[in-house]
Each structure stands twice: as C-alpha cells, then as structure tokens.
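## Example pair
The file below holds two records. Each record gives the amino-acid sequence first, followed by its structure token line.
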Amino acid sequence: MTHDEFDWDEANIRHIARHNVIPEEAEEVIKKFPIEIDYQIVDGEERTELLGMTNNVRLLTVVITPRYGKIRVVTAFPANPRLRFAYFKAAGFPYDK
C-alpha cells in the first residue's frame, strides 16, 4: 500500500491535525494490520474504525472510508483509555493505566 492509495486533501489533513495526528501516522496504522473495532454506514458511506500502532508506538484510532478507489481517512486521534487497555490486554502486555 502506497501513499497514492490514500485520499488526502486539505480538509482531512487539517481535521486530523486538530488531534495532533499527521497523515503518515494514520497510514502507518492502516498498513500495520490494525484491529477493526467498529463498522457503520453513515449517510450512505461505509465507515470502518480501526485501532493500531504507529511506528513510534503511538496507539491511534483511525476511521476510514473507501472513496474513488482509495482509502480516505475521515478522522484519526489517540486511542482512549478503554481502547488502550483492551489493545494491550489482547496483545498480552501488562497494563496498569
């Protein structure tokens, strides 16, 4: 999967930046076999919520949708405490907080 397979524009780049996430981080999560945590149809559009790790060991939630044959990141943000706990527990890591 290459950068060309993603649908980035000023709107979604600006949106994830509000959560202190950059496009490369969202792409890393998608490419590194994330866990699918939710799937919905929103206004007729498929939305898949993923949970995964960046190369810098940052656990992110990334919401994607297929658009024009590419993957469009709808939003991306740091995983909340509940999801962090579940992720690390499922991976077999001890987790206190």
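Second record, same layout:
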Amino acid sequence: MTPLQTESMTYRSKLPQMLDRHEGQYVVIKGTTLEHFSDSYEQALDWAYENFGLDPFLVKKVASDQHFCIEY
C-alpha cells in the first residue's frame, strides 16, 4: 500500500470523529496518525513541510462531502 492510500484510509476511517471537533478545518495526516489541524490549507501545508519536509503526508479539509477515488 502506498503512503497516500494509507493516509486516505486513515482520513475516511477517522472522519466521523474529526467532524465532531474539526469540521471545516484542514488536517495533516502522516501514515495512520492525525498530526495537526489548521484553519487554512496554507497553514496546514506550512506546518507539514516544517515537520516532515518532503516525506509523504496528506492535507485534507475535514468535511462530510469529501470523496476519494484511489485505486488499490
């Protein structure tokens, strides 16, 4: 499984709990861990680059209408 697949699965599985406290924010996911939440995409991306450099991570808006189309 690729890092993006792992992080996408983590997003989907943890979305219900994230919606309760973080709807509308942006989450940084590394592997299977929710690392950070920010109010803007730019803030989340800056935080992720500062902490992970060029290692893979996912930044995604926490919203109930988010969809993924990733082949496994």
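Notes on the second record: Residues 3-22 form the longest helix (20 residues). The beta strands are 26-30, 33-38, 58-61.
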